[in-house]
Design brief:
Layout lengths: L1 H40 L5 H30 L9 H28 L26 H17 L2 H41 L10 H5 L4 H14 L1
């Protein structure tokens, strides 16, 4: 009995210490960043400031980040033989790169037009966007980025390189989304985001529930609905 109690007590202490460490790490690394994003979203910014932030953000994520993923992946996969003929790999790379880039830019355009903001942390959206590509995926920019990295890595080196780079990008992206992005969106948009989160797929575009598809209107739709109801009265 004493040994059992001792094991339970030791496990409880270890659990408490681990939870305390996790809480301290979360407060230091995440809470300050989340608070900063929320504050940024409440600041008035001109269209020029938003555009400059968007250009810098897209240059970083379309040029620098993909190659930071692709080049190490190419070194790791240089001994792996081609999975399919090289011409087929190149063709697949072109199609995937174009599809991913187009899908991401569509989502960015919806954030600009409907959310009155950008993916940049310097000028986040002012409204929750649930239409366009966000109708069937909560993270269409990330999904498009994965296709873009997969295609660019395949086109530049090999299909194996593209797959490895995309997997690493997926892991890093999920860590950021779960650790920071979902928390700051919940702070900024409250119950509306929680409803949208529960009813819309996380990454891969798929049919969402009817409630979410009809769901929480973005800022532009809210204004149109309010104007319509007012004029009707």
């Amino acid at each position: 009995m004493f040994d059992n109690l001792k094991r339970v007590g030791t496990r409880s202490v270890k659990t408490a210490v681990r939870e305390l460490g996790d809480d301290w790490l979360r407060r230091i690394m995440f809470d300050s960043l989340i608070r900063r994003i929320v504050e940024k979203s409440r600041q008035e910014r001109s269209a020029k400031e938003k555009l400059l932030g968007l250009v810098a953000d897209e240059a970083f994520f379309l040029i620098l980040v993909p190659w930071l993923l692709i080049l190490p992946a190419a070194l790791l996969t240089r001994w792996i033989p081609g999975i399919i003929p090289r011409n087929a790999e190149a063709g697949l790379g072109v199609l995937t790169t174009f599809a991913g880039l187009s899908y991401s830019l569509w989502a960015v355009g919806c954030q600009w037009r409907l959310g009155h903001g950008t993916p940049s942390l310097q000028a986040p959206t002012e409204q929750l966007v649930v239409s366009g590509p966000y109708r069937n995926s909560r993270n269409p920019i990330q999904f498009g980025a994965l296709l873009y990295v997969l295609g660019l890595g395949t086109l530049s080196f090999s299909l194996a390189t593209g797959i490895v780079a995309a997997i690493v990008g997926l892991i890093v992206g999920i860590a950021y989304i779960k650790g920071i992005e979902e928390k700051e969106l919940a702070v900024r948009f409250g119950a509306a985001y929680e409803t949208y989160r529960k009813q819309t797929p996380f990454l891969v575009p798929w049919r969402c529930r009817v409630e979410a598809c009809r769901g929480t209107p973005s800022g532009a739709r809210k204004e149109r609905m309010n104007k319509t109801s007012t004029s009707g009265v």
